[in-house]
Specification:
Layout: H1 8-24, H2 29-45, H3 56-78, H4 98-106, H5 110-120, H6 126-133, H7 137-156
Helix pairs in contact: 1-2, 1-3, 2-3, 3-6, 4-7, 5-7, 6-7
Length: 162
């Protein structure tokens, strides 16, 4: 590796925790740890391209996203599909509106939900989200607008349960 190439260890220090959190929300913890290692293995394999990466954080999330998809494709071939639900902390349940919000988010179209999660949970910029998803920044804005509109509608409708 050339001396002017970004340090992979530094990338891991700066963004490894964020990438692990992203992975852990999408699969069990043990798999998330493995996928983090696979993500950085891909970074090592692509070390010659590091100097041309303009948004390293977004690039890492994009690789991690591909690792998750590959993981679930492998699982689908190995065993019947089963639904996994990310665990939440007890503190998150303090607000009684959170279950309704979680339910509304789960009902969003997958592309809206993923875009919203990258923005709110992973705190990626619009530019980073566009890079991760491989879509134009205008599409990111549109998806976030529609996601918020759907959530606002879902959460302001009166409850119909007795």
């Amino acid at each position: 590796m050339r001396s002017d190439t970004p340090d992979i260890g530094l990338l891991y220090q700066q963004h490894g925790g964020e990438v692990l959190n992203y992975l852990a929300r999408r699969c069990p913890e043990a798999a998330a740890q493995d996928l983090l290692q696979e993500t950085f293995l891909q970074v090592v394999r692509s070390a010659d391209r590091l100097e041309s990466v303009t948004m390293p954080r977004a690039w890492l999330f994009g690789i991690a996203r591909k690792m998750v998809a590959l993981h679930f494709r492998r699982l689908a071939k190995a065993e019947p599909a089963r639904e996994t639900v990310p665990e939440t902390g007890a503190a998150a349940d303090e607000d009684r509106r959170l279950p309704a919000m979680r339910e509304a988010i789960e009902k969003l179209a997958p592309e809206l939900r993923e875009t919203l999660e990258l923005r709110l949970t992973d705190e990626l910029s619009y530019e980073e989200i566009a890079s991760v998803l491989g879509i134009p920044i205008g599409t990111v804005r549109s998806r976030l607008h529609h996601a918020v509109r759907h959530l606002r509608t879902a959460l302001t409708q009166p409850e119909t349960n007795p």
